[in-house]
Target: Alpha/beta fold hydrolase
Amino acid sequence: MSIAPDMSAQGAGMPTVVLVHGAFAGSSSWNGVIADLKRRGYPVIAVANPLRGVQKDAAYVRALLDSLPGPVVMAAHSYGGLVMTEAADGAANVKALVYVASVSPEVGESVIGLLGKYPGSQLATSIAMVEIPADGGGTTMDQYILQDKFPEVFAADVDRGTAEIMAATQRPASASAQEESVTRAAWKTIPSWTMVTTEDQGIPPDLQRFLADRAGSTTVEIAASHAVAVSRPGAVADLIDSAARATMS
Model:
């Protein structure tokens, strides 16, 4: 049985849009994008990315992809780009990848390694580490953005009240999620689109541009913060729609 929502749209050639959130966010960060895409007739799933590590997260997302009938367009935000890059490789139903204020890594690259390529990220000085029990015994570390820094670093163009709620409800990422490398690169065989956020203090715009150029991605730039899916959902939906229409032509 598929968990896809209303599949009647696929009868008209509409792909299912699968959205993958990144670290320090959750599926609700896509709410405005989801509402816009559904108005356009797309079936949509915003997957609950576990944020436990690239391989674990990708296996989780890939299981969802394999359950879906018909074509799929994927969009990922931030760290979700690593998960999408790993999970979509070899998935015959995935027709397009959309990187939103995100990263499109090469095999062997990690979040930490990529963020070191260009200056501008404020994440390193904004993180709090919380020790938690690890599977199999021992402990591991979860990472949060300090709440007082969250609005400026993550969501500078989101109204303050909403940004403060996002800070309070953020989902932590394990340290391994930031350190693990991808072992596959779906953008080498699946066409990609990239939204570069020029006011981003999480992932430097120059890094986004470099990765998009390397991947041969169709690129748009927008004056927005890292939380562009919240501040500019219509623009994000427009790019996903463009990618989807290219797969249907």
The radius of gyration is 17 Å.
